[in-house]
């Protein structure tokens, strides 16, 4: 089983959690939600002599995807996202870039299905489609390491906003209850904003779930 090191950087206009998920044996790594500050992220990668393998987007909102293409082009690596997020990628209203006064579209190379398992940087990952914050929002479950990347679907003590275009509170709560809250209670949760948590803590204290 590959040993996972989690490095966290607060990036972009509103402070998004960008994660480096590093295979400590090989120094291969996955970049999660690079919503800004690409020069800083590239500097960190160089300092630690890391080997980027891919970019994982939990969803296509501006604050999570803004600098994905810069890193994709720098390292010649693919961008992964759930297939239901295709419209959000290319619609400046849905990806909220227009709201921030920076209308832009985004791209991806690999479109994942719900429940699809795949391997990156030596890690086995399962895609959990959790629509509601956006139509194609997804969580990524690293089963062997008991780590869940939750994006803006699940937060410590809360869930993602559903008042953006394409949002649905009923869909979000249902998908989280059916797919995420059934994971082992000691699973560490890496959210898109704010502090980390665990599935057990959210089972006990999250008022939405």
Tell me what the structure shows.
- With 209 residues, this protein is an alpha/beta fold.
- 22% of the residues lie in helices and 31% in strands.
- The chain contains 6 helices and 14 strands.
Q: What are its keywords?
A:
209 residues, alpha/beta, 6-stranded mixed sheet, 6 helices, 31% strand
Short description:
With 209 residues, the chain is α/β, with parallel strands linked by helices. It has helices at residues 38-47, 62-65, 68-75, 86-90, 169-180, 199-205; strands at 4-11, 16-23, 28-32, 51-56, 79-82, 110-112, 117-120, 123-129, 138-142, 147-151, 154-155, 158-159, 188-191, 197-198. The strands form three sheets. The chain has a six-stranded mixed beta sheet, with helices on one face.
Could you say which overall geometry the principal axes of the C-alpha atoms support? Answer: globular
What helical percentage do the residues reach? 10-25%
Tell me the structural class. alpha/beta
Report low-confidence residues grouped into runs of 5 or more. Answer: none
Spatial separation of the terminal alpha carbons: 32 Å
**So how many helices?**
6
Task: Produce the secondary structure layout.
Blueprint: E1 4-11, E2 16-23, E3 28-32, H1 38-47, E4 51-56, H2 62-65, H3 68-75, E5 79-82, H4 86-90, E6 110-112, E7 117-120, E8 123-129, E9 138-142, E10 147-151, E11 154-155, E12 158-159, H5 169-180, E13 188-191, E14 197-198, H6 199-205
Parallel strand pairs: 3-4, 4-5, 5-6, 10-13
Antiparallel strand pairs: 1-2, 2-3, 7-8, 8-9, 9-10, 11-12, 13-14
